[in-house]
Design brief:
Length: 176
């Protein structure tokens, strides 16, 4: 109950809902979209989409080291938060391989750069105990995972309803 009364706990939780929704939706539906809409072979479409995870893994390491070395955390939260949706739009709006590759790499960067900072914030809150910190982190991950659960469903539902993947991709991009 005390966790839900904390403004920081709620902000952390909501900070992951949109990006996790978008990341899971993009990773789930982008290969199908590239295959069906852009006529790309599934192996190529899957390989391109896998760059998101590869880039994100590498970026996450830098997202933990750079804020500590530079001494600033906000830019690593704000900049990716503002640009993740734009990078995602670049992944599906143009059938241009160069634009797609750049957008996919940028999406991987922006979806992972702020995660280490988000996960360290609960440990640095005033009067934080290990028990309270773990509950804040659990709430944050639960909210993010709820977003991750809804992302693919949103795109699938809107694709069935409208006949196009674009509305779902756009909704998830805007929500992020």
């Amino acid at each position: 109950g005390n966790v839900l009364k904390q403004k920081t706990s709620l902000l952390l939780a909501f900070s992951l809902v949109g990006p996790f929704c978008l990341s899971t939706a993009i990773n789930s539906w982008l290969p199908t979209y590239y295959h069906e809409v852009f006529g790309m072979p599934l192996a190529e479409a899957s390989s391109i989409t896998a760059l998101i995870t590869l880039t994100g893994t590498i970026t996450c390491l830098f997202g933990g080291i750079l804020p500590m070395r530079i001494g600033l955390r906000r830019p690593f939260l704000i900049v990716p938060g503002l640009l993740i949706g734009l990078a995602a739009i670049g992944c599906f709006m143009l059938n241009n391989l160069v634009v797609i590759l750049i957008s996919v790499v940028l999406f991987g960067v922006f979806s992972s750069l702020g995660l280490p900072s988000i996960f360290t914030i609960p440990m640095e809150l005033p009067d934080m105990t290990p028990r309270f910190g773990s509950i804040v982190l659990a709430l944050t991950l639960a909210a993010g995972n709820f977003g991750a659960f809804t992302g693919p469903l949103t795109i699938g539902y809107l694709a069935d309803w409208t006949g196009s993947y674009l509305p779902g991709f756009v909704v998830c991009s805007v929500l992020s």
